[in-house]
Amino acid sequence: MPAKVDEGCCVACGMCAEECPVGAITIESVAVVNEDECIECGHCVEVCPNDCITL
Asked: What CATH number does the domain containing 43 carry?
């Protein structure tokens, strides 16, 4: 299952997008995960400073 972003928690800091090894995350008003590109590695979950991303 691809990563999911809690939109009520995300502050669009960009850490997840910077660290995503396949570039599956973009930053708009919140982080947005491209589910077709996400490889479910969990790195974004680890780097999110606000714990807003889950797999």
From this structure: 3.30.70.20
